[in-house]
Amino acid sequence: MNVSAAESKQKPLHVMNIKLYAYNQMSWEQFQCYNYLIYQESRWNYKARNGSHYGLGQMRSKWYGTLSPLKQIDAHLDYIKHRYQGDACKAYAHWERKGWH
Fold first, then answer.
1. Rounded CA separation 48/24 (Å)
2. N- or C-end of the chain: fewer Cβ atoms within 10 A?
3. For the segment 31-74, what is each residue's pLDDT rounded down to a tens digit?
4. Quick check: 1 pLDDT over 50?
5. How far, CA to CA in Å, does 67 sit from each of 55, 90, 98?
6. How many CB atoms lie within 10 A of CB 90?
7. Residue 56: its pLDDT value, please?
8. According to the model, what pLDDT value does residue 24 have?
9. What is the C-alpha to C-alpha distance for residues 1 and 31, in angstroms, rounded to an integer?
10. Mean of the per-residue pLDDT values for the chain?
C-alpha cells in the first residue's frame, strides 16, 4: 500500500468518525441500509481484504484499498450512484439476494 508521508503521520480514524462521515452523505434511512451493507462486507474495517476485493465496500480494485476510509466511502457511494441510482437500500437488497453488490 502506498501511503504519503502526510498520511502516515495522521492518526487513524475511529470507526464512529467513518460512520458519521458516511451518514452525512445521505438520509437516515439510506444510512441504515448502507451501515448494514458495509457491516456485512467489511465490518467497517477499511483495511479488509477478501481475495481481490478491498476496503469498506469490498470493491474489486487494489487502488480502492489504498484510499483513506473517507475516500473509500466517496468511491463506494459513486459506485452505488452509478449502479443503484444512488439508493443504498437497493444495493443492500441486492446483497441480501445475491451475496454481492
1. 23
2. N
3. 999 999 999 999 999 999 999 999 999 999 999 999 999 999 99
4. no
5. 8, 25, 26
6. 15
7. 97
8. 98
9. 29
10. 91
Report how far residue 15's alpha carbon sits from residue 29's, in angstroms, rounded to the nearest whole number. 19
24 alpha carbon, distance to own chain's centre: 14
Closest by CA position to 19, among listed 92, 91, 72: 72
The three-state (H, E, C) secondary structure of 16-66, written as one string: HHHHHHHHCCCCHHHHHHHHHHHHHHHCCCCCCEECCEECCCCECCHHHHH
CA 80 to chain CA centroid, Å, is 10
* Residue 45 CB-half CA count within 13 A: 10
Length of the chain (residues): 101
